[in-house]
Amino acid sequence: MSTDDASSHHPTPPPAGDDHGPGRFEPFAVDRILIDQLPSSLGTVEAPERYSVMAVFTRRPLPQELALLGDPAVERQLADAGYPRVTLTTADRRLVIANTNLHELKVGLARTIGLILEDIGKRVAVTRSAQARDAAELATRAAERASHVLDEATQIDFSPRVSHYT
Asked: Which stretches does the entry tag as region Disordered (predicted)?
C-alpha cells in the first residue's frame, strides 16, 4: 500500500473483458490511506503507538455491506487474526481503522481487512444476484400474464354474429 500523496493516486480502470462490465460494481475494497488524516506527530518521539487510520473505499459501500462490516463476526475475525484491539467503522466512503498503526497494517492487518471486505462484497453480490434473478423471474411471469390477458381480450368479438365464447 502506497503512502504517496493521496491526491496523486489514480486507480487504473479494469481491463477489457473483466467482469466489471455495465451494471457491475467495483469490488468492495480499500483504495488508499488518507495521508493527511494520519497523526501529524508520526515519525517523531511524540508519535502515538496506536491511532486511527482513515482509508477510502474503492466505491460507496452498499447498505448491506455496511451492515455486514458492523457485524460482531468482523471483530472476531480481526481478533482471531491477532488484532483484538483493532476496530473497523465507516464514515461515508471512508473506512476508519482504529487502534492500529502503519506498521501493523503493513505486516498483515491490511491483507486481513482486504480479505474481510472481499468476503463481505462477495456475500452481498450473491444476495443481490439472487434478488435480481427473482425480480427478473417475477417480471417475466407478469409479462407473460399480461400477454395472455391481452390475447384473451383481443379475441373477444362484440359483433352480432355468434361468439367464439359460448
From this structure: 1-23
119-132 confidence digits (pLDDT tens)? 999 999 887 665 66
Q: What are the structural domains of the chain?
A: 24-128 (3.30.70)
Count of other CB atoms within 10 angstroms of residue 153? 8
pTM above 0.70, yes or no: no
Is the pLDDT score of 49 beyond 80?
yes
**Surface-to-core class of residue 94, CB atoms within 10 Å of its CB (0-12 exposed, 13-18 middle, 19+ buried):** middle
Cell of 131: 434478488
- How wide is the angle at C-alpha 129 spanned by C-alphas 74 and 30, nearest 5°? 40
Helix (H), strand (E), coil (C) string for the chain:
CCCCCHHHCCCCCCCCCCCCCCCCCCCCCEEEECHHHCCCCCCCCCCCCCEEEEEEECCCCCHHHHHHHCCHHHHHHHHHCCCCCCEEEEECCEEEEEEECHHHHHHHHHHHHHHHHHHHHHHHHHHHHHHHHHHHHHHHHHHHHHHHHHHHHHCCCCCCCCCCCC
Phi, psi for 53 (deg, rounded to 5)? -115, 125
